[in-house]
Amino acid sequence: MKGARYPRPREPLHGVDSVSQNMLQGELSTGHLGRRTSPLVLFASVEVAPFSHVGGLGDVAGSLPTALAEAGIRVVVVTPWYGAPDARSGAAEQTAATITVPGLAGAELFQVWRGELRSGVPVLFLVNANLFGTSYVYLSERDRQRFAAFSRAVVELMRVLPVDILHANDWHTCPAVIWHRELRYRSRALFHQRSVLTIHNLAHQGITDVTYARALGLEVDELLDEERARYPDTINVLARGILAADAVTTVSPSYAEEIKTPPFGEGLDRLLRQRGDRLFGILNGIDTAWYNPATDPALPGRYTAENLEGKALCKRTLQRELDLASSPELPLVGVVSRLDRQKGIDLVVEAIDELTGLGVQLAVLGTGDATLERQIAEASRRYPHLVASVLRFDAELARRIYAASDIFLMPSRFEPCGIGQLIALRYGAVPVVHRTGGLADTVQEWHAPSGSGNGFVFEEHTPEALLAAVRRAVDVFHKPVEWQRLVRNAMECDVSWARSALEYARVYDLILGLATSAGAPSPTFGR
Ligand code: GLC
Questions:
Q1: Any bridge partners for residue 197, and if so which?
Q2: Atom 5, ligand 1: residue with shortest CA distance
Q3: Which letter does DSSP use for residue 17 in this model?
């Protein structure tokens, strides 16, 4: 059979009715899959921008696969379709393939639809109206059931596609890693395959009642110490994924180190230390073709590091749009963020009087915690023309804010990587960040004598330290020659995926036995 590398298992695995193997393989072996000699990666994520997009996971799943493909790796993305797919929209077309898996209330049937990322990388959408019939990605209580069924279907795809690597992301697809590990010793199809788990945020772990976990089809014999320590009679899906995966990655070298310590380990630091030789920190990137101030259609003015006139126009236009005082002299500080404690938005609220006292304007875009939303809205009423807040998710306005801002504020308490500061660098909004996780790895303090650095970094997570860093930024803003150099440094940073895609390729090679660990990225690897 064309493209089949592994023989079919002699018997179907538990719960599988049918996957139209020939047809799927036929479809995927034509077109965008590159050289047959490179590994084939099945990249599983419950968010994939632009199809589904709640946070950074969606950004990564919508862009990393393209960079992998550009690095010569064959990659297929698999994700649920939320709501009812519509063939007429052109986003996806139905294939003849179906996958049946055991579910809580009897068998669950997924139809397989096929679409593409903007780059042409194939995306398989698993469609099931019962579990994924609404347009919401997350539904809280039902998510364990929904994502377990999806994960199970991913494993069945692994059985019929000539996949080498399952690349799972966050707790939602950990059941796929766990089942794959269990089944691979019983199945010739799965035997040679390996799995990678990327942790985007350790704070979400998929903690599940034992009885319910069993009903979902997860085998539970003994509980881990970590599970017992947390809540009685629960399993921790992420912890089990960390143990089952052949390699674990997280999204920055600093976060990879931090999570091995109790303050950042969210109760899993011991496990992560245990997996230390297979835990890699690889920085996120962004799609620099999409996020490009020289071509971005959402911007009123386009610009480059060499010619920033368009950026001044973006600032003027946004000041008008948000009813801020129209003044090029006032440094405009942008905040585009989920409004919650992780992101340190409470510090911004605490510092708001002093911030406005520094003579800056603030434009805040985002949604989240109701109290923080209220406090931000209240601040914009208190300081009309100085503080503007837009409490919604708006991808185009976000890009107009990045382009208009002189300074981008990201005071996260912890930050696995962070995407906002990467976009800010690309758009020449100088980041002011807390030294943590990926923020520490991507932003270096401006140093005037040498003209080095791309932003401002504060150590203590306090309003005073945040203010001091903004003050340093404002001082430099008022020295145009220095500021221009700083903006240029920011815009010239490599925030693309190119280097990180090669790091992932090395991890794949390592676990497939094609490379030695000497060639693998070390947790200290940085940009
Ligand atoms: C999560 C993390 C963020 C990271 C993103 C993508 O949203 O909080 O730091 O950049 O995932 O990996």
A1: 168, 248
A2: 56
A3: -
Report field, pTM of the whole predicted structure over 0.85: yes
The correct answer on CATH 3.40.1190.20 for the domain covering 15-281 is no
**Which residues does a 6 A CB cutoff place in the pocket of ligand 1?**
55-57, 60, 200-201, 251, 284, 415-419, 438
Q: What CA–CA distance (Å, rounded) separates 61 from 65?
A: 7
Three-state DSSP state, 158: helix
User: Mutation test of ligand 1: which of 52, 415, 417, 421 has the most ligand atoms closer than 8 Å to its C-beta?
Assistant: 417
- The three-class DSSP label of residue 461 is coil
How do residues 442-497 score in pLDDT, each as one tens digit? 999 999 999 999 999 999 999 999 999 999 999 999 999 999 999 999 999 999 99
C-alpha distances out from residue 162 to 181, 243, 405, Å: 17, 24, 47
How far, in Å, CA of 363 to CA of 404, rounded? 10
Q: How far is the CA of 415 from the centre of ligand 1 (A)?
A: 7
Listed as own residue / partner, the contacts of 515-522 with beta carbons closer than 8 Å and 24 or more positions apart are 517/277, 520/280, 521/280, 521/281, 521/282, 522/280
Distance CA 37, CA 57 (A): 29
**Residue nearest to ligand 1 atom 7, measured at CA:** 56
Class assignment of domain 309-491?
alpha beta
User: What type of residue sits at position 43?
Assistant: F
User: What atom of ligand 1 comes closest to residue 415's alpha carbon?
Assistant: 9
Distance of CA 498 from the midpoint of ligand 1 (Å): 18
CA 349 to chain centre: 26
What burial letters (b/e) apply to 314-338, b meaning 16+ CB within 10 Å? bbebbbebbebeeeeebbbbbbbbb
457 vs 413: CA distance, rounded Å: 13
Residues 198/507, Cβ–Cβ less than 8 Å: no
Could you state, in order of their start, the residue ranges of all structural domains in the chain? 15-281, 309-491
- Phi first, then psi: give them for residue 466, nearest 5 degrees: -60, -45
CA of 497 to the centre of ligand 1 (A): 15
Average pLDDT for 428-444: 98
Do the domains at 15-281 and 309-491 have one common CATH topology?
yes
- Confirm if 516 and 431 have CB atoms less than 8 A apart: no
